[in-house]
Design brief:
single chain; mainly alpha
Length: 82
């Protein structure tokens, strides 16, 4: 148990975490570039919070895209959907 804790402390960032942070940072920069002129009334803190949330959502859907629902039973039997 102690060995595992020491190992985790020596290597806190896994390669996946590094890729995740790089992807979120890239998405944040791109979003900031696109929306900067529309968000002039926001304070710097509000803009940063907005960018953080938007970048995380962008990363989330890039990693786990929405999968369409499976075809209904009617479609499987050759009937047209309503």
């Amino acid at each position: 148990m102690q060995r595992k804790a020491r190992f985790q402390k020596r290597y806190p960032d896994s390669m996946d975490e590094k890729r995740k942070s790089e992807a979120i940072a890239a998405a944040r920069r791109e979003i900031a570039r696109r929306i900067a002129r529309f968000c002039t009334t926001l304070s710097e803190e509000e803009l940063n919070r907005l960018l953080d949330r938007m970048a995380y959502v962008q990363w989330k859907y890039d990693v786990a895209p929405i999968v369409p629902d499976p075809p209904s039973l009617k479609q499987k039997n050759g009937e047209l959907p309503d």
